[in-house]
Amino acid sequence: MNPQPSTTAAPKRAKILVVDDDPIVLKAVTVILTREGYQVVSIDDAVEGLTAAKDPSIDVAVLDIKMPNLSGMDLLRGIKAARPDVEVIMMTAFATVETAVEAVKSGAYDYLTKPFENIDEVSMTVAKAAERKALRDRARALEEALTARNQFEELIGQSSQMRAVFKLVETVSHSTATVLIQGESGTGKELVARAIHYRSARKDKPFVAVNCSALTDTLLESELFGHIKGSFTGATSNKKGLFEAADGGTIFLDEIGDVPPATQVRLLRVLQEGEVKRVGANEPVKVDVRVIAATHVDLNRAKEQGKFREDLFYRLNVITIDLPPLRDRPEDVPLLAHHFLKLYTGKVGKRVTGFMPRAMEALTCNRWTGNVRELENVIERAVVLTSKEVLDVDDLPPGFQDAPQAGAQVEVFSLAHLPYAQAKRLAMRAFERRYLTALLEKHNHNVSSAARAAGVDRSNFRRLLKQYEVAGRSMKRGKDDDDALEVAS
Fold it and tell me: Which helix (H) or strand (E) holds 250?
């Protein structure tokens, strides 16, 4: 009994191209594959077959080797050059070892000998080729999905503001429109730019970032547009600019608001004409570059004050992404803190598993004037210096220990940047911790006595002490010393 073709694993809707100048063979193969559920495109001319193979929906090509006008081997090479992902099966009535080796070296998956001894051999070979193509397609799709997801690895947030940013990044990535990213220093503007680039069709081309505020006027123009030998003192040779280096990809112009007026004019030409002119040169150079700009200043106000060209502003401001400061999204602080904790424990080689609640509350209540960058620095410092497995408030820099949740008096202004519900919750936690601490001290850390005074069941009172991390630092032994020792432990 002949084995059945293993078409169950292969995609039934795979599209197969069959090219053979013999009408009988062409019809026979077409019928066999159509019965197996494949979409079949039948062509009796090799030149037409090469054109048909460029269809992106073609998965497998079955080609005769001996054909007029264009040989099957030449057709194989042409298909592999245009569509290397297509699996190719060669058919020949003159099978030799040399023919098979040449076909495989040229990229063929397999070959069939005519006349076919068993029609199942045809369907089985095509099924395996289609399955291989499907597996490769799935692997590539997973890799692209993982790559795309990893572009958000450093852009972390669960707040509504950040979810809106993620959605906008997904949307604009598939266009070529200029993007302007606005946000305070440390909010992650370059991370957004990279996320857009690596989710776009330009992801395999260069991503070039330049800080426009870090260079003098002359150096900035030379860096961006390049220069020719002798164009200024120190120009000892011709040099390509960053726009040319980014050709086909993306250029990220950070702190675009600090670009001087003369350079603004040259940038406008790039955006309008798609060409750059090197410093000192007469002939322009065509470039295909997507521009993503970022600024921490209000460009609209700068435009109104005459500090930024109006025409350049509108060229840049096609799509705007506003990054919120960290203080406006405190619900993202725990997520970011744990991310940086994992990052730096891995780098330092320490086992630090998390944060004590009061440490996390201190982090959440901080105003973070340096935004995400400041939070990252704080967590890195804590990981390097701590000897604990769980970070506490005393592992944080000076000042965090004086935060309201560390036991000090809550000042309303210290919570004013938080949403009402979160500010209320943190203030209540601070109050409850202070109350429990004061009550224990009043009763010499006698848990039973303090619980009676609070009007709370002793077991519930112990749970409150553990919840708020209030422990007897100098407990005195008495009739309830077992309770005190339990709390201390």
Answer: strand 250-254
